[in-house]
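Hi L.,

You mentioned the student needs an example of a multi-chain input paired with its predicted structure. This one should do, with 1057 residues in total across all chains.
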Amino acid sequence: MNLTHLTALELGRAITQGDVTIPQATQAALEEIAQRDKSLNSCITVLAEQAMERAETLQKGLKPGLSPLYGVPLLLKDNLCTQGVPTTCGSRLLEGYVPPYDATVVEKVKTAGGVCLGKGNLDEFAMGSTTETSNFGPTRNPWDESRVPGGSSGGCAAAVAAGFAWYALGSDTGGSIRQPAGYCGLTGLKPTYGSVSRYGLVAYASSMDQVGPLCRDAADCAAVLDMIQGKDPRDSTTVDGNYGGLLSSLASDIRGLRVGLPMECFGEGLRPQVAQRVQEVARVLESRGGTVTQVSIPELKLVIPAYYVLASAEASSNLARYDGVKYGFRAKEYGNLTQMYENTRSQGFGKEAKLRILLGTFVLSAGYYEAYYKKALAVQGQVKQGLERAFAICDVLLTPVTPNTAPKLGESLRDPMGMYLSDLYTVPANLAGLPALSMPCGVDGDGLSVGAQLVGPRFGEQVLLNTAHAYQQETDYHRQVPKGGGMG
Amino acid sequence: MNWEIVMGLETHVELSTESKIFCSCSTAFGGAPNSQCCPVCMGLPGALPVLNQKVVEYGVKVGLALGCSITPVSRFDRKNYFYPDLPKGYQISQLYAPLCRNGRVEVAGTTIGIHEIHMEEDAGKLYHDPATGETLCDFNRCGVPLLEIVTEPDFRTSEQVVAYLKKLRDSLQYLGVSDGKMEEGSLRCDVNLSVRPVGSDTLGTRTEMKNLGSFQAIARAIQFESQRQISLLERGERVVQETRRFDEEKGETFSMRSKEEARDYRYFPEPDLPPVVLSREYVEGIRENLPELGEAKRRRYAQQYQLPEYDCQMVTSHPALARFFEELLALGTPPKQGTNWIMGEVLGALSERSLSPGQMPMTPKTLARLIALVGEGKLNRNTAVKVFEAVFDTDGDVDEYVAAHGLEQVQDVELVERIVVQVLEENPQSVADYRGGKEKAFGFLVGQTMRKLQGKADPQTVRRLLLERLGQE
Amino acid sequence: MEETNKPVRELSRLARLSLTPQEEEELAGRLEEMVGYLHALSQVEHGAEVEAPSAVPFRPDQVEPSLDGDKLLNQAPQVRDGYVVTPRSVGEGGAE
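Structure written out for the whole complex:
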């Protein structure tokens, strides 16, 4: 049995049945990390000793009726606060920062018996699509180490793909779970806004950030969502809902499912091979009883400018607290308070963060708020309406995750505008607060993973998971493992 | 030329909730530095605000008391600026949709419009360390709930301003939402002031004055600043729109920063807090349960109890006093007796002990009993005052004290009469002096009689009997 | 810079960032490109904003223990006698 490439639920069952012990699984993962993460650089912090101790404790507590993910080791994106464990957000500004509390999702994972192996690399403060803007160096794609794993949850995606962990919790503001899942051949899900607590998730753009799973298949995603979804009294933006039961209700019967293909997501800029793979997904879904129709959502035209206005505006405010006063990095040299602020922030933030702070400051500044911020809000409203209209006639929307496959390291840094534009398909779900899932659907000519995205209506997680599950019954792309892994 | 002063006020009110506006830390004053903080109010990465329902309730109460309309869907916004007392780099406040709008207050014969009332969080406290030239930050006050009450520019005199603030403080105290203490910073007032020629209907350039710590400082600052602006304009110069700080010692205002440093707060809707949605039932429920405020009480006391205006003013000067007074009445104390005792002995005793009316150790029941004993003729007023002093701090039992110290008034008129005869016999010289026209001698005879009776007789009776006897012979 | 844009220097001052001349040039160029792209928003009509899906939940006014002061202060770059220390704040100006 190749332990590190089981799905999380398979490992959970093996643990329950006594085929594998939790320390064995933890050990196997830690060995993979020790041997191969030097080149991948997927983890900022590895909790080798802590994880083994925790595994031993959990093994002793093994009994019937526990979570299906009890004892399954995982990785946390390093923008989720962990009590007593450094949380850096990939930034020099939080180098050495140790939170005094756990994020709500971290608490939930611990309560369910998760073993945290460490903290995954990310673009600085989750601002980026390649994990190259991290202060701790870029992460590489385990499928092709000359390429990026995507971002900003690139460390988590690379690690799960490489067999370092059975699943990971990432965060998604404009595609930061789905896009790296797509580039690394994983199944990832951005939940309905307000269904997962953001308490303890270091904010990038609060109105769109959402924590979600990066997994090997849809069933694992269902299990993780069951664990982390729920209203949280500490996060006022979480809402009541009928949470739990996604895994137990998981079904592969999609007869009568209405699948919509938005024309706007298959136009200019989309690589033909990517388009082809996604069209093939439509055919598979049809073969299992779904009906596929083209839909038009012209409101999607301005999603990128609207997204960058809103996200940068919120980011410029969310990142104001990193000022060298209360925690984290402070510049060594300064003559007065203003210099302390400026030197700390200038030395502490990387270029991408600075750009977005400046952009956000601009769109909120006197005289520009109406011209940019208010207009972006109007677009957001239109996008919501356009998607609602589509969901009146469809159950899910099928789109590519990105127009391309994983670029080479450095490529996106040379063409940042191109990188922003490639968020075109993932951003609408964030603007509208809808759930969206990314799943692997084959490879391009270079053998690189192509991702398909399913978008659902509010609280439509079950239909997304069922659709992906049905697809994964028919295909084995999600079972592919990069070379070099699987030593467990 | 004759000039008119035009002023508007921005008043910050610290609400007396137990916990902070967005987290469960205590709002208590005077804790050790940084001992009342948590991830939320310290602005730690990942922490999120959760709104204290009491802050909304208090805000609605104040809004209704000031005649405002309550916004059914109000929102929080972020005000962005850097300062060490602001841990998140922004203050959560309300700009675009404040909790209350369009109120009005009658003050000193004028109507003052209330532009808006909004909720926000307080900042921390900074201390300058002269030894090192550094700033010390205490974040305990971060997140203490504030209401900011913004008036229209309807004030023309400093008397109106002070009257408004007194009335506001009075309302806050009666509503029980703030202690309204200016000296402790729970009521902070900024004055926006401009001047214009009398008769003009356009507004002049205004300045904003901060750091006004007392009613007196406010009146002095207004006096200085209006004169400064008038002098500038009369010299043909212009007023610069700016923020000015009032220096209490010098009695002058000073520019706090130059205009090129104008702020750009980049307000935008707070994404961490959904809108505050208040139903009509909620607002009406609060309206129905609003307490009677000081002014209404004063009017009612004057009408219902025929009390002088001064008495009404005094006993309603603090809600605890008014409550005390009303409880006295409920126990049967005649209204005028009640106000006399409150204005005299009660306020005297409180001030001697530096206590606020809310900290009164004596219960209305005790004072009511004391007043009743005087009314029944069982104690004379002077003795009663001594008893009052003796039982005030411990709320001791009046009857027990009187009995234990044998203070009941001598009711036996014959006994008093015997003593009077005795005193007259023992003091023939004084009797002669009195009859010879020396009024002072009469006082001496009263004193002698009271002494022999150990002060327990009714002085009126003693006087009457003495006069009778002196007139007879 | 495009005429509708604020100089990068003014923005960086507002954001408390001091940029090297090289950084300033590079970020100015990228910002100009972004802002040019965002200009597409100008064609949008102001529409009714979409209502938030929920109303803010209320917390009861109850005091819970604060965080241990040491846990907060041990993260601060400079601390003295229980206070967090910064260079003198005069000149920055506080809230208005």
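You could point out the following to them. Chain B is about 40% helix and 20% strand. The mean pLDDT of chain B is 92.

Best wishes,
N.
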